[in-house]
Design goal:
140 residues, alpha+beta, 3-stranded antiparallel β-sheet, 18% strand, EC 3.1.1.29, hydrolase, peptidyl-tRNA hydrolase activity, Alternative ribosome rescue aminoacyl-tRNA hydrolase ArfB
């Protein structure tokens, strides 16, 4: 089976993708009523041997509502009147999601505020406080 390159180290087997076609919704006249131009792509992330577990986890978070409870990503493309263009579009979207999932997020390093920023903050608070103190009742 041919493989679909995703990154230098990851490629998907063609058999892992399940594509089906259906009629597109919306306007289009007689053409839309006779051709199955919309493409639905299903990719079982949980059962995929091509993806490392860490990528599967991040991909599930990226996919969000496009992933079913069973771990299958379902993508639909019907933007073009051409089935071939829709097929290419839906595959490109899946590959883009997988590429995004390969990037490991950098952990945030906790930092302390600088002494100067703490001083500026306290000076600002003191200034505001004196402004508000001046709004009290007048004593004669």
């Amino acid at each position: 089976m041919p493989r679909i390159p995703v990154t230098r180290s990851i490629s998907l087997d063609e058999s892992e993708l399940v594509e089906s076609t259906t009629r597109s919704s919306g306007p289009g006249g007689q053409h839309v009523n006779t051709t199955d131009s919309a493409v639905i792509l299903k990719f079982d992330v949980a059962a995929s041997p091509s993806l490392p577990d860490a990528v599967k986890y991040r991909l599930a978070r990226i996919a969000g509502s496009r992933m079913t409870a069973e771990g299958v990503i379902v993508l639909r493309s019907e933007g073009s009147r051409s089935q071939l263009v829709n097929r290419q579009d839906v595959r490109a979207r899946l590959i883009a999601m997988i590429v995004e999932a390969t990037f490991v997020p950098k952990a945030r390093k906790a930092t302390k505020p600088t002494k100067a920023s703490q001083t500026r903050r306290m000076d600002g608070k003191a200034r505001r406080s004196s402004v508000k103190q001046g709004r009290g009742k007048w004593k004669e």
